## 1
Amino acid sequence: MDLQRDHRPWLDTSVLHEVVAQLPPLPSVIRYYDDFDDTLRSIRCPAAANRFAVHANGSVINIDFDLVQEAFGILLKHVFLRIIGEDFAPRTAAQYTLGGKHFGQEDIAGLLGAGPTGISSVWTAFFAKTLPTDAYSCAKSILKLLCQHRINGWSDSYHDVISALPLPFKDKYAVVRSGEAFISVDDEAAVVRFLDEAALQAKKSLLALEDVQDAAMLLCAYQFAMRPVQIAMLTFCDVKVRRGGVDMLASVHITFRMAKQRSSSAAKPLLRRVKREWTPLFVEIDRRFQADGDDAGARVFGATSANEASRRISSLLRDLLELGATAVNLRHTAAQRLVDAGASQEELAEFLGHSDMTTALVYHETSANQAERVNKALGISEIYQRVARIGHDRFIGPEELA
């Protein structure tokens, strides 16, 4: 992903240069934590760098600054520095900064020159262009940068004004509401049969290591609704195997980490227990790990990135299911399955690893079982019965009105 040059002549570069002149010098090094590789990364000499190579989820996101005007590049470098300094995840910082590639010359001049009193009208015109969400997130980050350094009348007291500026609406759960996100009951049965058979073969050491790893990754996506990044990040330190006696299945506990948190510090451990019948998959992986004498920090599945884990799971599902599926489909299906079984908002949020309980309310909204439970609960409510009677009779007495 690269920033793109706007080849049109800038209408007014003076405001851009004035703002950049008021910004402090960039530090000699920008450091950030890469939680996927558990490494502290450094971007050295950022002021002179033509590119930031940002490591996130096992991949590298390139932000090329030599494709934009120099002053605009400096501004975007400050935006990246500010977002990273607020402990946002590296991927978020990179995506917001890359949002600047969608700006035209009039957008930058308008944002920088509007000031707190004029930003509303400027934003209305900017918003009407229907740019990607990251572009508007980048614009808000630029305004917050002006607040931080008290430039052009901005100050920290205007953060609420910036927060109130609208962002494009996108229904992330449209496929959940339509049902397209879920795999069928027959497909679920096919996944379960595959895992049962793979576990039996793994118990007899009949599978190649990569086949066992792929099956175990599918298990994590199906049973625990984990995202590919969470699956790919697993190390042998995160897997605890307790072997039983002869002819007894082992006990396997896995510690995942929360993902898709904007801040890396928001990630919390998620302890899960593997279904007994499927523990031979992890037992076999652990046995080969012990035999090879690898470091405990090695990846359990040998995946070098979230993208690789996603591809391997999708490839396996293409072979298993007629229409194929992805790890995301398995996550949605697991969530809906749990809600249909009667899980509360708190239980679902804990299962999915959400820090906000309202994030997954859509699964309750689309659950026929939950709707039936609500109707039964209302049916025994005296207040509900009274309201229903009023609706039926189309009459309300003084006492009922009170």
## 2
Amino acid sequence: MANPKKVPLRKCVATGEMKSKKEMVRIVRSKEGDVSVDLTGKKSGRGAYLSKSKEAVELAKKRGILSRHLSSEIPDAVFEELLSLVEKERH
């Protein structure tokens, strides 16, 4: 009898919800300190997961959750990229 495949779950740093990895977006800080959106989920570095929702992105920006999690300053361009990604997902 085949075992059903286990779905990897991740916790959103903004909302605290546990969701499947496919429903999340990963933000990564490289060793050099560059912060970027990791669409593949495989870049090396310190990562944090956010739900693919406008509310989660705005909450993370407002409260500085990502900067705390990644111990780095998060450029506005990263939040803009996240918001545009969320908009694309909705349509």
